[in-house]
Amino acid sequence: MEALKQKILKDGRALNEQVLLVDSFLNHQVDAKLMAQVGEEFARLFANQGITRIMTVESSGIAPAAMTALGMGLPLVIMKKSSSRILSDDTLQTQVHSFTKNSDYQLTVKRKYIHPGDRVLVIDDFLANGEAAFGAARLIEEAGATVAGIGIVIEKAFQPGGRRLAEAGYKVISLARVAKMAENHIEFCD
Ligand code: G4P
What we know:
5 helices, globular
């Protein structure tokens, strides 16, 4: 998505070879107009797939996911992160490890917000190692629903998440794929 790539080049900043700062428009301050374009693009790319529900992981996935839900006229469900296990019959839960943050968290969703037979589109802001997306997929599948697609705003293509998800059979579409970074230098894949 050209407008997104231009925004990343203009307002994003590569801190080093691993970390891209986009907090001026994606995960602290939010450029709502750009997020609306992101939502329209995901709605177009995932049209005619029988999708019934959009899901994301709090917190930075919420803005692009809400705009996608608006664009597709579907409900949005936000999976929550918790540091401790919540043992409850009405909640699905799985442990996720974040390599970037070097910590584990429990990803949870109430059963009443995801139904057997749902075809779910997962939207998230970043894809690095793919652990959050795999965790989301585990919860969706445990509920008897299907992951119909995974839409990512920024994929760090030099990390293995995209390849791992594709190998597991998931349809992943990323709007901007970063091939390489260095301090103050960002290169996209073709
Ligand atoms: P993975 O799910 O793909 O395995 O990724 P990983 O655990 O390694 O990283 C997850 C968290 O780190 C996510 O935030 C993600 O947005 C953030 N992250 C990963 N790489 C970058 C980066 O280059 N730049 C920025 N700005 N963030 C990055 P989170 O823990 O889910 O927090 P939140 O912001 O959604 O609340």
